[in-house]
Protein: Cytochrome P450
Organism: Saxophila tyrrhenica
Amino acid sequence: MEGTLLLTPAAFRTATLALLLAAWIYFRRSTAWRVLPEGMPWVPADLPWTRKFQLPFTRVRAHLRDFQGGSDLAYEGYKTYNKAGKPFVVPSFVTWQPEVVLPLAQVKWLVDQPDTVTSIDRCLVKDLEFLYTAPAAWQFTRPFHVEAINKLRLDSLVEDIAEEVQAGVDEQWGLDGDAWTEINIHSTMLAVLVRITARVFVGSPLCHDAEFLEAAANFISSISGKAIIISFTPELLRPLVAKFITKGLKRWNETCAKHMVPLIKEERLHRRPSDQRTMPPPKTLLEQLSRLAVRSTHAKDRDPFSLSSRLLALNFVAVHTSNHALENALVDMVSPPASTASVFAELRAEAEEVMQQNHGTWSKTAIGQLVKTDSALRESLRLNTFKARGVERIIVKKGGVVLPSGQYLAEGTKVGVPVLPIHRDPELYDDAMSYEAFRFCTTNEVAGGKNGRTESPRRAGHVELVNTSETFLAFGHGRHACPGRFVAAYELKLMVAYIAMHYDIEPLASRPENGKFSDFSIGSMHDIRVRRRKPEESK
Ligand code: HEM
C-alpha cells in the first residue's frame, strides 16, 4: 500500500518538471499583457502593480485575487476611485486582460461611442472564445442577428411561450399535489428555458425534437468551461488544444445544424427579397434571420450552416442569462425578508387577478399588467447581475482614445463599468442592499425614493424591467443594450406567473449565497422544495 503512494525518483522528476512547466506557462500568460493602461490606479491596491518595479509573480498574484473575488475588487475600486470620479484598472483571471473600470459619470460617454471606437463584438468573441468554440457563428460581415431579434413580433409569440412554460414546468417540477418534492432550480429551469427559447428561435415541431434539444442543452452547458480552458492556453497552443477540447461542441453544433439547415434553406430557397413584401411576417428567429440573410450580398452572411451556428450561439446567450435571472428571482422571492412579507403570495394574487381579467388567456396586454412581477424580477436583477462589471468594450480606434477624465487608452484596451457596485450604491437606491420586490411599482407604498433614477431622482412611477439607464445596467445600456431583453421579460414573467399560480415553494430560512468566480456570479445552484397546488387551490 505504502509503495503505491510514494513516487519513484523518475516519476518525481517528471512531476516536478510538469509542475515547473505549468507554473512557467501560467507566469507567461499572466504577464503577457496585450495593453497596459498607464497613469491609472490599479486594484488590488496592496499588490505593487506599477510597471517599472514589480516583484516576481505580482501580476500572477493579482490574477489569483480576481479569481477569489473579482466582485470585491470591483467594490474596492468603486469606493476608492470611481466615487471620486476616477477610473481604475483590475486584473482578470478569466481573460488575462486587465480592464479599465470607468466611474458612473463616464457611463454615458462609453455607451455613446460608435463601433468604430469601441467594440462589443470583440469582447463577446474573446470572452467566449467564439473563434474556437463556435467559429462558424462569427463568419458574417454584418451582425444582423441583433436586427433579427429586434424585429421579432413578440405579441404573436405569447401563446407559444405560455404553452411551453406550462408543459416545461409541469414536466420538470411534477404534478404531485400531496408531497413536497426537492428540485434543483438551476437544472430544472435551464431545461424549461431551453425549450421555450427553442420555440421562439426555431418554432414547432423542431422545439420538441429530443435530439435537437439535447444537443442544444449540451452545447449551452459546455461552452463557457471550454472557453476558459482555451483562454488559459498559451496562444501558440490554442488551435491544437481547442481542436481537442471542442470536439463535443462541434458535434452538438452539427447535430443542431442537421435540423436547422433544412429549415433555413426552405425559408431562403423559395424567397427572394422582393417576395418578402407579400409573405406573412416571420414568426421565429430562424425565419427572421433567414429573411435578413436573403437581403445580404455577402456569401458569408447567407451560408445556412453559419446561420444555424449563429442561432445556437445566440441560444447560449439567451438561455444562460435568463436562467441566472430566474434562479435568483425565485430564490429572492422565497427568502427573508421577502418570504416574511409574503412576496410570493402577492405575485400569485396578481397573476390570478390578471388571468381572471383576461379570461384565462395570456396576451401582450395581460403580460403588461403583471406590474409587481415585473418589479420583482427587476429588483432581483439589480441585486444579482451575472457579472459585477459590464458594458465591456475593446477600444478599436487606431491611435486610441482619451477619456473625459483625461487619461489615454490605447487601441486594444478593455474597458467596462462597475455594474454591481452602481446597483448597490446607497446614494443611488434607497436601502440599496435590501431586496424590495416592489421597489419599481407605481403603488403608493413605493412611490418616491431614488431607485436608480439619475435624471429625476425623486420622480415616482413604474420603471419597467426592460428600461435601461446609467444606474440600471443589468441589460447594458445605449446602442448595444441587450436586444433580447423584451423576449426575456415575456418569458420570465410568464414563468413566474405560472409557478406562482400552480406551485407552492417552501420558504427558505435565509438567502443562500450565490457562487462566485472572478467577477461572475454562477447563481445559487440551490435545491428548493416545491409542491403542486391542488386544482381547488389554483383559481
Ligand atoms: C434576463 C436575461 C438577459 C440578460 C440579463 C441579458 C444581459 C445582456 C447584457 C448585459 C448584454 C451586454 C450589453 C452591453 O454590453 O451593453 C447583452 C447583450 C446581448 N444580449 Fe442579452 N441578456 C438577456 C437575455 C437575452 C436574450 C433572451 C437574448 C436573445 C434572444 C439576448 C441576446 C443578446 C445579444 C444578441 C446581445 C449583444 C448585443 C449587441 O451586440 O449589440 N439576451 N445581454
Residues 185 and 527 are 6 Å apart (CA to CA).
